[in-house]
Amino acid sequence: MMRKVHLISVVEPLVLDLALAIRQKGYEVSVSGEELTDDIADKLQEVDCTWYGEGWFPEKLTKNIQFVVLGAMVKQDNPELIRAKELSLLILSIPEFIFQQTKSKTRVVVAGSRGKKSIISMIVCALRRQKLAFDYALTSEVPLLPNRVSMSYEARIAIIEEDEHVTSALEKRFQLEFYRPHIAVLTNLAWSEKGDHISPESYFETYRDFVASIEREGRFIYYLGDYQVKALSQLVREDITSFSYEEHSIVEKEDKWLLQTRYGEFPVCISDEFFLTNLNAARLVCRQLGVKDADFYKALSEYSSSL
């Protein structure tokens, strides 16, 4: 029997892409939201998602719905949320649902304040070149991918971009605490007063919980140039293997930039420190996923020339 999922607040981009992804996976999907645009309606209609118009329709919720998934902006007094509680339906935040969908996969979670999109783009490029299937759930738009979410039964890898914001109206924990990575990447830490954390201490504590949530025998890949991240690397459990990374070495020859590697030199069109640092993080991730360094460098040489 087809599993039924209802998503509340489909106008949130991640909720919309999640709805489209699980519909394409074969779920029966219904959605709701305010201020639905024609563009959103067209996308829903294209994959045969059910929606009832503008606003909330609590009377449409029934006991045969397996999951109700909340957007991050849904409030406690949302009539559909209230009705889901009355029916004792299973209510999940987006990260909880993504975890449920990727339980049997190798979860790669890229976290931190800077460079996540770049690292993920490089990982995607290398995996595609090796024809390795992967699912993904991202908060950023990556040009190599058609949308933010893709879910399948076949892929054994799931790439997840962390979000350090609060999960939903029901759950005041932070989103990156739910994903339980097998491979965790941490780029840097930069607390902001505009974020959901009330202090630098609570911000650091959230990332300490993230590191503690790495699955048994997992991998922790961290940027050595950030003193707070380096401090967190000292707190990992004994069963976790840690790898640090810094800027990749490069040399200029005949007006060309070349990565210096044990496999030879590979041309790249970008030479700034952020690109070279993110490249090393992506390389270490891909190595854990079975991509040889030499193959990674070939892929990144092509990727660089396309930017």
Give structural attributes.
7-stranded mixed sheet; globular; alpha/beta; 5-stranded parallel sheet; 307 residues; 15 strands
H and E string = EHEHEEHEHEHEEEEHEHEEEEHH
Find the structural class using helix and strand composition: alpha/beta
Mean pLDDT: 91
Percent strand equals 15-25%
The oligomeric status of these chains comes to single chain
Could you tell me the number of beta strands? 15
Order the strands across the largest sheet as they lie in space. Answer: 8-7-9-6-10-11-12
Number of helices: 9
What are the low-pLDDT stretches, counting only 5+ consecutive residues below 50?
A: none
How far is the first residue's CA from the last residue's CA? 45 Å
Q: Give me the Rg, rounded.
A: 21 Å
- Biggest sheet statistics: 7 strands, mixed
- Fraction of helical residues: 25-40%
Question: How does the overall form come out from the CA principal axes?
Answer: globular
